[in-house]
Each structure stands twice: as C-alpha cells, then as structure tokens.
Design goal:
about 350 residues; about 25% helix; 4 helices; rod-shaped; 6-stranded antiparallel β-barrel; 4-stranded antiparallel β-sheet; alpha+beta
C-alpha cells in the first residue's frame, strides 16, 4: 500500500514538472516573438532639404540720394513790364521754343519801326553818295561818313529787335511746367518768378559714397533705386559720372546716376535709396537655416545615399537675405537639411518631405 502511494506522488510530481515546462516554453515564446514586430515599427525621420546650388552673387553698395531734374530752370522775365498773355496752364508739357509769356511791347515795336525807317533812308542816302563818289562828284570822306551812319542805323535796328525779343518768353527746352505764380495783366520785375520748367524724362540721382569704395566706382555701373512713395516699384539706371573731388570733411565722393523716368513718377528733391552693383560672381549658395554653429565652426547635415545623414563642416563667406555663400565643404547638388536638424544623428535614415 505504501509503495503505491509513493508511485502516485512521483507521477503527480512528474505531471507538475511537465506543466511548468510547458508554461515556461510558452512564456519564452511570447517574450521573443514581438521583437521583429517592434523592429518593423522603426521609421525614417521626416526632414526638409534644399540643394547646394551655383548662383550669381551680386554684391551691392547702398546709399541715399537726392533726385534732380535732367534740366531745370525758373522762368523769370529779363525786363519789367505788364503781362499781356499767358500761353500755358499749371503742369503743362511744353516743347522747346514754345511761347509761354508775352509782355507789353508796344513802345519797343514803335521804336523798332522808327529805326527800320531810318535804316531804309540811310541805305538810300548811302547809295546816292556812293554813286556820286563813283563819278568823283563826292569825296571819299563823305562816302565813309555815310557808310558809318548806315552801320549805326543797322546796329540800332538789331539792338531793338533783340530787346523786343525779351518781351516774349519761350521755353528753353522741352519739359513740364510747374505751378503758375502770376496772372495776366500783372506787372512783373526781373526777379518775379512766373513758373518753373523741369525736364523729367530722365532723373539725375546724386548720392555720397565713402572714399574706401572709390576703386570700385566707374561710369556705366548699374544702379537700382527705391523710394517710399512707390514701395512696390524699383527704378533702374546707370552711373554717369564720379566727382573729381573727395569731401575732406566727410571723406566721401559724390556719384551721379541717370534714371529713365518715362512715367514721370520721380520728382526733383525726392529721397531715394540706391543700390550700386559692385560686382557679380558665380558661387555656391545654401539656405542660411541649414547652418549649425558649434563654437566657431559651422556644420550642415548632408543627406547622402539611401537617405542616410552625415554631419559635415563647411566654410562660409558672404551673405544675402536667406542664403549664405559656401567656400568649401560642399559640392553643387548635394542636399542639406533645412528643417528637422534637431531630430537627426549621424547615420540616421530620413524621409524627405516638402
């Protein structure tokens, strides 16, 4: 009886051992089977990239300039008298030689008419004496005297004709008139301002440049001008002359550029910001947000084969808004990370997104 009980105990123990082994095996399988699934969950890091590109770097010099008319004059009379006619309105466009103002010239016309009559009479007198002198009926001195009187009469006519011209004011060149300052019938003096005349087809822009840039300045350099009056417009022109003297106080030199003004938008006296193109060169450029600073060194994350990432040191130089020139460390066409740099490490696999 005792022997059978021992056999039952051994059998029960074996059954429990077998059950424990099965549980352990199953538990081990459960703990190792999810590993491949977790490995499959690992995904690439999304980043935004940009290529290193060959581009034209334009180096400019910025200055402030004052606009001037191509030609400008204040219309004033040269004689004092009463205005009989004003042949223009405010802001008219006029041509060279167009009559603008007529002054009262009745007295001068009468004097001129008298002088011409005297000239005609003197011409007849000279012809008579000359005829007599040819027949030796008049002396040579009489002929010379009449010739002198004839020249004096002709000079008086020419003088009065010139004075009569002063009573008619003409436009000295084509342009746009300003505001009229007088009215018909007004008596004007030689210092009375009648109006202004400006040739605005081209605007002259004068600006100051430090003498340190003197070697880079030359005629024909392109310039771009901007004004707050027209924030969405730019005006293109060229340097026409560089002054011959440097201001000893400011150590700057005056430069003048001509800017075509076909729409007459620019006015004399306007303040403009001008950019002078100093040089143009082809260089390698990348977005400035791609650059990482570590002490005094600069790095970028470069996306290589199979979208793996590597960290590379670069040397930069000139800048322009949003971009930096790369002197060494990159080749044209290589992709650099511009967004997502804080989520990558050397050897990381990335996914390029827009």
């Amino acid at each position: 009886m005792e022997k059978k009980q021992k056999q039952w105990i051994y059998a029960a123990a074996l059954v429990w051992i077998a059950v424990l082994l099965i549980i352990l095996v199953r538990t081990g399988d459960d703990s190792t089977s999810p590993a491949p699934a977790r490995a499959a969950v690992v995904s690439a890091t999304p980043v935004v990239v940009a290529p290193a590109t060959e581009d034209i770097f334009v180096e400019t010099l910025e200055a402030l300039g004052t606009a001037r008319a191509n030609e400008s004059v204040t219309i004033t009379p040269t004689v004092s008298d009463r205005i009989t006619a004003l042949n223009f309105d405010d802001g008219d466009s006029v041509s060279a030689g167009q009559v603008l103002v007529e002054l009262n010239s009745e007295e001068e016309k009468s004097l001129l008419q008298e002088a011409r009559a005297a000239l005609d009479e003197q011409q007849l007198q000279f012809a008579r004496i000359k005829n007599l002198a040819s027949r030796r009926a008049a002396s040579q001195s009489q002929l010379e005297e009449e010739e002198g009187l004839l020249k004096a009469a002709a000079a008086r006519v020419a003088n009065l004709e010139a004075k009569l011209g002063d009573y008619t004011i003409e436009a000295p060149f084509s342009g746009v008139l300003g505001i009229r300052q007088v009215s018909p019938g007004a008596v004007v003096e030689t210092d009375t301002i009648i109006t202004t005349l400006d040739d605005l087809s081209v605007v002259k822009l004068d600006f100051q440049v430090p003498e340190t840039y003197l070697a880079a300045l030359r005629s024909g350099m392109p310039v771009t001008a901007r004004t707050k009056a027209y924030p969405d417009r730019t005006f293109q022109g060229k340097v026409t002359v560089v002054d011959t003297r440097v201001d000893p106080v400011t150590r700057s030199i005056t430069v003048r550029a001509d800017i075509p003004n076909p729409d007459l938008l620019l006015k004399p006296g306007m303040l403009l910001t001008v950019d002078v193109v100093k040089s143009e060169s082809s260089t390698l450029m990348i977005p400035e947000e791609a650059i990482l600073m570590e002490k005094e060194k600069k790095f970028v994350w470069v996306v290589g084969a199979e979208n793996t990432v590597s960290k590379r040191e670069i040397v930069t130089d000139r800048r322009r808004p949003g971009a930096v020139e790369v002197l060494s460390g990159l080749e044209a066409g290589e992709l650099v990370i511009t967004s997502g740099t804080n989520r990558v490490r050397p050897g990381s696999v990335v996914e390029i997104v827009e």
